[in-house]
Amino acid sequence: MRNLNSLKAGQQIIFSGTIYTARDQAHKRMAEAIKAKKRLPFELEGAIIYYCGPTKTPKGGIIGSCGPTTSARMDEFTPALLAQGLSAMIGKGARSKKVKDAIKKYQGVYFVTYAGCGALLSKYIKHAETIAYRDLGPEAIVKLEVKDFPLIVAIDTHGRSIYDAH
Amino acid sequence: MREIKASQITKAVMELVRRANFILRNDVRFALGSAYRLEKNKRAKTILKAILDNAVYAKQNSLAICQDTGMPVVFTEVGQDVKISGDLKAAINKGIKDGYRKYSLRSSIVGDPLLRGIPKFSPCIIHTDIVRGNRIKLIVLPKGFGCENKSRLMMFKPTATIKEVKKFIIEAVKSAGADACPPYVVGVGIGGSADYASILGKKALLEKLSTKHYTPYAKLESDLLKEINNLNIGPMGLGGKVTALAVKIQKYPTHIAGLPVSVNISCHALRSAQIIL
After folding, report:
1. Contacting B residues, span 65-124, partner chain A, CB-CB under 8 Å
2. Cβ of B67 and A117 within 8 Å?
3. pLDDT score of A2 more than 70
4. Domains plus CATH for chain A?
5. Residue B23 and residue B150: Cα distance in Å, rounded?
6. What is the DSSP letter of A17?
7. Is residue B205 in a domain?
8. Could you list the residue range(s) of the whole structural domain that residue B123 is in?
9. Distance (Å) from the C-alpha of residue A63 to the closest C-alpha of chain B?
10. Which of chain B's termini has less CB crowding within 10 Å, N or C?
11. What is the C-alpha R_g of chain B?
12. Complex ipTM
């Protein structure tokens, strides 16, 4: 994602491109892989992670319901991923002070998207392919191609948070 | 004795799984609609619109309202004049498993809480009541864990004031903040024992949101709702008039030494469906 620095907390944007799903157990595994200096399932440099565990894909469909899960549960793993080059995250809810500081330090961005709207959000997914951690079921890593995916900037590269604003 | 076959129960549970996950409860939809009309904040209005659109899209396309299709909680009321041929619990779990598979829902249940393991569709949680009559009532409540994680239980002293109880309930909502998909429905269980208060808090979520109690608890519910909606958490926690759609309280007699209070928060995607066999 280009021009991350120009984004401001509170801004609503639409995004088209590649994002990777990863939630609790995938984060735990990636954190262990980083510690053990092992290869990660996808290149973190410049990547966007979506905290999401979709429902099963209906017959003939691209993906099932696929809204965001609570981001705070990923907080303990996030600074290490940002240090590896992760550029942005999509989820729901507030983040810890540590994550906010790491976002500022590594010039990342945290987005939120419509929470509890998994059916609606599936409209914006044009392609989905499971690429790693298949044994985790809905927590596997899925590479998604999205078009016009709605996002709200929740923490910008300056560390400003939408949750501090009100 | 009226006979009900286990296979009938399985079939009924499968249908409840579909209805609960694909079709938002009418009372919840109405409450969200009023919240949308009431809201002045532009961003909050946009989010509420997305929530309402999501319900329509889910129903039209047979998609889960939310990808967290929950830990299914099944409330059963079995009439004492019913003879069930077969295994009731196995029949319910089969209905959950087959329904979740058939309707492409999510396998969110790990077999061991500490060792975790590969997520599966079942088992569900089953609460069974024996009641008079010769019918069986089944309710399926797929409870998402974003909000379930924000549950609270407090064993108050019997001399605690209503003010203290209110403060605890409001703090529970505050600490859920933006995380658990507001606007919430706040289920509260007061009295009984630690376990029973928790069940009451969850059962409160099954009440029709527009139902009014004609007891002193009605005032408590409306006072709490007013105070919660003054928190300005709003949809997605980004501010707004509506932080909760309703507060529902269920109560039960309790012990002279205590006052258990349980808070069970539901996200705006409060899903449940019921049938009487």
Report:
1. 65-69, 101, 104-108, 116, 118-119
2. no
3. no
4. 14-160 (3.20.130.10)
5. 24
6. E
7. yes
8. 2-22+65-143
9. 10
10. N
11. 19
12. 0.94
